[in-house]
């Protein structure tokens, strides 16, 4: 049995030793994955040894790929255990993550080469040129990580669906990878980022490359125009909202409330570890102003404690998640506050989790099922 393949009583299975050799991991690792339920071999040999089917090997491939991208075991278990995601969807997700890393690395190398060339010639390198090494447009820098952690949260999706009412035609502005697009209506998507458009799953709504401020549609072309967690990225949010109002009879927008005094203290992460968040939204329009622009009322959107969509506030009762690099990479806030603030926040949060200070400060959160952290649904 030099190949490690088992025939006979346990047909078309591979021994644990052979699988470990092929995967480049130890047998001990495979035993641990079995014990915690992450990858359980589907058979045993007559002697009682673990035997892996082709399906088991496929699942192991997904687990190891996510692990090598920096995911923790808990996050990996959630990803591979998602019943709505098949092998093809996992491959697309992994490809997006890897392409994002490749492209970001290539962009950084190119920027470093340009700076080295300039310095070799004795030229002055401007601050803008120095910062170019960090990447290009925001969505192109963070987009590849979206499919890993930014999944549709069913409870938020239900609230959005209720807001859409009986609309038959829907324009999704700033659509990203397609989260929250209703499957029971005729949807047209608008997304300016090529990285985001490239990660939209097969069979999703047709997507137009355009910006919210200049929608290429005639007046009142749609029953509803929707925008989910995207307005804060637009060059001119008010102009984009007016465009949505122009092309649709109604508008539904998931956004953030900065009108309430002390709003930045609603969330422990911004209150205690990342005060720079307030500056990120310093120029953001008021909720009242956005509501007036589209003739809307505001409705609170609670964030469930186990929110499936890895938005900035998603892990308010799971603070360890913010220590994971892949979680932060899929949230624009971390890119916008800068690496120094990010490193400081992560270090202090880690220290407080280790010492128990975080748990002591936030003991009132332990039994909450959902929290109002400023998300608002504007409904016209």
Characteristics:
alpha/beta; Multidrug-efflux Transporter Regulator, Chain: A, Domain 2; Rossmann fold; 4-stranded antiparallel β-sheet; MerR-type_HTH_dom
CATH class of the largest domain: Alpha Beta
Number of helices: 18
Distance between the termini: 69 Å
Total number of strands: 13
Shape assignment: globular
Strand content: 5-15%
CATH superfamily of the largest domain: Vaccinia Virus protein VP39
- Second CATH tier, the architecture of the largest domain: 3-Layer(aba) Sandwich
The total domain count is 3
Structural class assignment: alpha/beta
Q: Low-confidence spans: pLDDT under 50, at least 5 residues? A: 135-144
Whole-number mean pLDDT: 86
Largest sheet: 7 strands, mixed
Please tell me how large the radius of gyration is: 24 Å
Q: What's the quaternary structure here?
A: single chain
Question: Approximately how much helix is present in the residues?
Answer: 40-55%
Strand order of the largest sheet: 7-6-5-8-9-13-10
In the CATH hierarchy, the third-tier topology of the largest domain is known as Rossmann fold
GO molecular function: DNA binding; DNA-binding transcription factor activity; S-adenosylmethionine-dependent methyltransferase activity
Protein name: MerR family DNA-binding transcriptional regulator
Pfam families: MerR, Methyltransf_11
Domain HTH merR-type: 13-82
């Amino acid at each position: 049995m030099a190949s490690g393949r088992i025939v006979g009583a346990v047909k078309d299975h591979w021994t644990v030793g052979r699988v470990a050799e092929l995967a480049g991991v130890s047998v001990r690792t495979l035993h641990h994955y079995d014990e915690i339920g992450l990858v359980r071999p589907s058979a045993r040999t007559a002697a009682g040894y673990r035997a892996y089917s082709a399906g088991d090997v496929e699942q192991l491939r997904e687990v190891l790929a996510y692990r090598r991208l920096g995911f923790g075991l808990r996050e990996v278990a959630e990803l591979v255990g998602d019943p709505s995601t098949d092998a093809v969807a996992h491959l697309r997700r992994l490809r997006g993550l890897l392409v994002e890393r490749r492209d970001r690395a290539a962009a950084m190398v190119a920027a470093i080469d340009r700076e080295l060339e300039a310095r070799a010639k004795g030229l002055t390198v401007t601050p803008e040129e120095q910062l170019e090494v960090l990447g290009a447009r925001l969505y192109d820098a963070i987009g590849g990580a979206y499919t890993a952690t930014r999944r549709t949260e069913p409870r938020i999706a239900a609230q959005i669906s209720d807001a859409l009412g009986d609309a038959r035609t829907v324009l999704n502005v700033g659509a990203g990878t397609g989260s929250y697009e209703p499957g029971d209506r005729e949807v047209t998507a608008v997304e300016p980022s090529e990285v985001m458009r490239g990660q939209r799953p097969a069979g999703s709504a047709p997507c137009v490359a355009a910006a919210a401020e200049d929608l290429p549609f005639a007046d009142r072309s749609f029953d509803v125009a929707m925008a989910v967690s995207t307005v804060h990225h637009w060059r001119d949010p008010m102009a984009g909202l007016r465009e949505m109002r122009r092309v649709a009879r109604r508008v539904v927008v998931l956004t953030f409330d900065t009108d309430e005094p002390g709003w930045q203290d609603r969330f422990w992460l911004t209150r205690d570890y990342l005060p720079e968040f307030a500056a990120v939204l310093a120029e953001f329009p008021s909720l009242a102003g956005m509501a007036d622009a589209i003739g809307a009322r505001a409705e609170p959107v609670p964030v469930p404690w186990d929110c499936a969509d890895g938005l900035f506030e998603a892990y308010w009762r799971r603070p360890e998640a913010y220590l994971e690099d892949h979680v932060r990479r899929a949230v624009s806030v971390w890119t916008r506050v800068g690496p120094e603030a990010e490193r400081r926040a992560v270090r202090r949060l880690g220290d407080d989790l280790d010492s128990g200070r975080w748990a002591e400060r936030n003991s009132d959160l332990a039994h909450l099922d959902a929290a109002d952290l400023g998300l608002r649904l504007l409904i016209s």
